[in-house]
Amino acid sequence: TTKFTSALDIPVEFVKKNVKLRGELHHVTEEGLAVEHVPISIPFLTSIQRKWQSKGLLLVRLAGVELAPSGVAWLQQELKPKQVMWFQLLGREDLTLECLVLVNKGRFLSVCLNEEILRRGLGRTARIEGLHHHSRLYWKLHKKLLQAEFKALKKKKGIWKEESYSETIRDRLSNSRFVQTLRQF
Predict the structure, then answer these.
(1) In this structure, is residue 2 part of a structural domain?
(2) Pairing outcome for strands 58-62 and 96-104
(3) Helix (H) or strand (E) holding 96
(4) What sign results for the dihedral spanned by CA atoms 115, 117, 121, 124?
(5) pLDDT tens by residue, 1-34
(6) The organism sits in which domain of life (predicted)?
(7) Residue 49 half-sphere exposure toward CB, CA atoms < 13 A
(8) Which residues contact 124 (CB under 8 A, 6 or more apart)?
(9) DSSP H helices in the chain
């Protein structure tokens, strides 16, 4: 029932046990998602606690994902302020939380943003900070993320998109010295 306003407020046991927390998105930054933690509510107790709870945002980074600039733009476009999301704690580095982020899409469907970014080719797979690379969970998550990235690579989406032959020829011609000299003339 406690509201966490800083990554340092979250107990170490929560991070070790990979607890899922609920929050509301405030905005997307280059470093990650600024999320307000929404604690479990107990009707009578919650109304009393709200008076003493301080305001603060948690910085949540997508674990195992190195975002491309197009990935940040996509997140800013797709995610709405005050959107409810779940984030599973995988690690903590200073004031930043490494998490798997789940967003509800409809009543019974939720999407893992970490996988969705990679599936769309808007980032690359990176090491999952905070988890020991010997753990079973690390390899399970890393495998899922690599599979999502491979789908984008196979379909040539996002950063994996290759220029067509005609685009390559056009670029080479426009950059040639002869064409540049003609333009100056």
Answers:
(1) no
(2) parallel
(3) strand 96-104
(4) negative
(5) 778 888 888 999 999 999 999 999 999 998 899 9
(6) Eukaryota
(7) 14
(8) 65, 66, 68, 118, 149, 159
(9) 12-16, 43-49, 69-78, 113-119, 136-155, 165-174, 177-184
In a domain, residue 1? The reply is no
- Using a 10 angstrom Cβ sphere, with 0-12 exposed, 13-18 middle and 19 or more buried, the burial of residue 22 is middle
Structure tokens, 184 = 């100056």
Asked whether the predicted pLDDT for residue 45 surpasses 80, the reply is: no
Q: Would 83 be classed as within a structural domain? A: yes
Count of domains in the chain? 1
Q: Nearest 5°: CA angle at 119, between 114 and 122?
A: 75
Q: What is the number of helices (H) and of strands (E) in the chain?
A: 7, 8
CA distance 33 to 140: 24
Which tokens is 62 given?
């997508």
For residue 50, being part of any structural domain is answered with: yes
Q: What's the predicted TM-score (pTM) here?
A: 0.77
- Domain with 68, as residue range(s), is 7-183
Strand partners, 93: 96
Q: What is the CATH number of the domain that holds 173?
A: 2.40.50.90
Distance CA 83, CA 19 (A): 20
- Closest alpha carbon to 10 in 40, 29, 37: 37
